[in-house]
Amino acid sequence: METRKLGTQGLVVSALGLGCMGMSEFYAGRDEAESIATIHRSIDLGCTFLDTADVYGVGENEELVGRAIRGRRHEVVLATKFGNLRGPDRSWVGVDGRPEYVKRACDASLKRLGVDCVDLYQQHRVDRTVPVEDTVGAMADLVAAGKVRYLGLSEASAESIRRAHRAHPITSVQTEYSLWSRDPEAGILPTCRELGIGFVAYSPLGRGFLTGRFRAATDIAADDYRRVHPRFHGDNLEKNQELLRRIETLAAELRCTPGQLALAWLLAKGPDIVPIPGTKRRTYLEENLGALRVGLSAADVARVDAALPAGLAAGPRYNDQAMKAVNG
Fold first, then answer.
1. Contacts of 83 by beta carbon, 8 Å cutoff, 6+ apart
2. Could you tell me the pTM of the whole model?
3. Is 121 a catalytic residue?
4. With CB atoms counted within 10 Å of each terminal CB, which end of the chain scores lower, N or C?
5. pLDDT of 263-311, one tens digit each?
């Protein structure tokens, strides 16, 4: 397995990570036994960078990951996130970046994961009511206490990244980045590169759309979050089929699957980028890891960029309410 450096503080991770969110919530067809088997297979294959968050399944995902890595903690780089708040009924109630909350959230995550230390602790969303320096200061205290090794941000603006990095070195920034979400190229990714911060690309397969699995609304289970996602809904889903057709044409020419092309494109965008495709099945995991063998040339990347320019996707990447919390 190829490895990559995130940031300049010493964190080394597998070139592809495993996003664990869907194992506990949002996507249909969950099976805990298969999810744990998928994590075990991922570790066996060298894909050892595991990403979770306290909000996924309202703590259930951290507990699942904790069970899966029991006895194998030394083999993985473990990342989790804090800051999004859910109510007892699983409703979304806001973002909390207060220093006192940061420390409580970390202790709770460590308990659910069954570990003494998290390798990468990330602020899931920036709390616009709390100076980011205060939040990062509390995170830095966790580093000093030995509970966290490295710090990261998720969905932060370029300005917030700069301010946070001045308060304590930030190792990585995690933001949605894929062939249908190229927003980071405009400011966030250049800022990370200027400051020597690594970039973790979540939803690199467009929540599964870029694999070709979703042609119509009927392909999406009734209890699947994608049913109400703007890009999978109504006319947007139909319009986005053109984007998918372009990917499929290029993938056929390059003798890989559409999903492998999407991941290989990200990997070729720079050695500081680590995609974390999520899956809860071993079959899809192994297909995703096949992207490491695709090896796009500079000319191939240029062709993909030309065929799939920024802004091509129909619909925003979240609903109106959720979009207010990104780029904070």
1. 95, 96, 97, 105, 123, 124, 125, 126, 127
2. 0.95
3. no
4. N
5. 999 999 999 999 999 999 999 999 999 999 998 999 999 999 999 999 8
